[in-house]
Amino acid sequence: MTTHPAPPGPTTGTKPAAPARRPPLTVPGTWRLAAGPYAVLIPRKPLLGTAAVLVVLIAASAVHLAVGEIFVHPLDALRALFGDGTPRDLLVVERLRLPRLQAGLAVGAALGAAGCLMQTLAQNRLATPDTVGLNDGAAAFAVASVTGLTTSLLPSGAALTGAATAAALTLALSGGAGRGGYRFLVVGLGVGAVFGAVTSLVLARSAADAANAAYGWTVGTLNSRDRDAVALLALALLIVLPLAMVLGRRLLLLRLSDSVASGLGVRIKGLRLAVIALAVVLGGLAVAVAGPLGMIALAAPEAARRIAGPRSVPVLLSALAGALFTLLADLLGRTVLAPLEIPVGLVTAVVGGPYLLWLLLTTRTRRSL
């Protein structure tokens, strides 16, 4: 009888071969940060773009403090920020330019973030707080509060009320801010025109002193802004910007059909209302500080998308770009015809007008985002 060796297996004590280890998941254009079993993929292009814009914004802030009718050396301006320097430097930097810088940073960031949210929600590059009536409603109520014709609310509260009223009217008349982005935009333009007429009527019926006091809320300016309003806007940014960044990630799914987004767990109606509420808060408080600054909410998100790419909703980058554009516009208005000062709202309108015309001529499809 012939015996044969048993096949290798558990009875012979031979260990089975270990499974091959899978390579770590990587996505082109991202950095992978791993900690134990957890890993995070960070998009490379948006992060580098945000860092670059932040560096440019810091440099622009330093120039904003140093350059003007009275030149202050950047190092002297930096020392004046900490309360050290000559009386002239302290007066120019702390009393005159630093409040404008703070107001410009807060207003520009708020408008940039609000514009990014509105454009992504409506799937339209032209849908911003400027064009859908939010800023016009906020300006009308703020002017009314200053002149004392219709309400005794502070400008911040009145501007929020006006922005919310304009948003409610636009949503009700357009049927929402969903796929009908152009209908939402056209209705918003009409609502904004009505509120603009209300502002003109209020100013025409006001006394000369009251109309002069409300002038800043009609053209947009950073000169002699209320510090309490700036502080309120800064506090709102600290709360709203993180929420807007979270909602921005959800807004990416709205680029799909509503049925697909709902299947992925997105509550479409609630998401849209939340986005509009955040845009109302940011736009209303920004108008309460500086008045309606046109084109910031339109240009900043467009620049942010060109830097970050189409795969994200760059809320933070739009806020930084909006702050940068606002500071540059204010610096241009202070220096180009010095000692004559041009309000920053007029500068943004003059510079942004050709950009809006170019955008209208190059937008060929209904869905631009």
UniProtKB/TrEMBL annotation:
Superkingdom per UniProt: Bacteria
Localization terms from the record: Cell membrane
A Pfam match: FecCD
Protein's membrane topology: Multi-pass membrane protein
Region (Disordered): 1-24
Residues spanning the membrane: 47-72, 103-122, 153-172, 184-204, 229-252, 273-300, 312-332, 344-361
Biased composition annotated in UniProt, kind: Low complexity: 11-20
Biased composition (Pro residues): 1-10
Keywords recorded for this protein, A-Z: Cell membrane, Membrane, Transmembrane, Transmembrane helix, Transport
Similarity comment: family membership: Belongs to the binding-protein-dependent transport system permease family. FecCD subfamily.
Name the record gives this protein: FecCD family ABC transporter permease
The species this protein was found in: Streptomyces pratens
